[in-house]
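STRUCTURE REQUEST FORM
Protein name: Small ribosomal subunit protein uS15m
Source organism: Rotaria socialis
Requested output: structure tokens
Priority: standard
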Amino acid sequence: MLTVITKQIVPSSILQSFGKNRANLINGILWIRSISKVSPGIVGKTKRALPAHMYKPKPKWETGDIDPYPNFDTTKILRPGFENSEELKTADDLVKRVFTLEYATRAEIQQYYSDYLVKAVQRHPLDQSSYEVLIAKLTARIRMHIKYGDIDPRRSSRRNVVGKLQTIRNFLLNKLMHADYDVYEWLKKVLRIEHAPENPFITQIDHDDRELERMRLQQQARDAVQVKKDELKLRFAAEKEKFAKEKESLLCEIQRDLEDLQIEIAKHNETRRQRARTIVE
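Status: completed
Returned output:
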């Protein structure tokens, strides 16, 4: 029920009854609130537009389906189970139309579309359990949900169902990719779907702002340490030649002092070994 404000002119006879209060009326016009039985959303002859925040936006279906649900001519396609009927071949056009998809249920339309995709990918008429057939059936269900989800975007349950079906289909696509990559690429072209294969060695981790800041500071500290290491490596490489020259000159001086003292190193070492052997015995 809506309250409609209407503009009504008060007759002069009523104004005269007010007497002194007539001066308080503005130009003899009053706005009188009256209740009228009008359907919600309707004012007069035009439909009232609801505010923008009361409309739910159309959902974005990021399922990877390039082609949407096709628009079949439902008046010429027979329902599943009546394709090979001998009676319908000789029946009247009106009788045939009763058995077409025009008067079929939603489940029968989905079954027809599912069979349509399955026949395009199955290798044998009895094949009902291969990866290609299962993916085709899931694709038909996903596109049917997308079609009716655009009609009624307020149903969040349909979006949840589409998400679950997409997860199962991605799992089967990954299985098929590891089993036979050529068939995997061929199936994507036939069914007109996009799929990014998952890398099992890469795990996506969502970090909060505090964790990201900590990781940034850690990386900054590692970079500063690496810069100092590189500087030390260059300085040690420059001082290496100087150290080698000093070492060589020091060894020459020691050798010269030994020659001046006329110390026979070999004889001295032999004496020390004999002394050690005597102590042990």
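Reviewer notes: The radius of gyration is 45 Å. Residues 15 and 227 are 96 Å apart (CA to CA).
Form closed.
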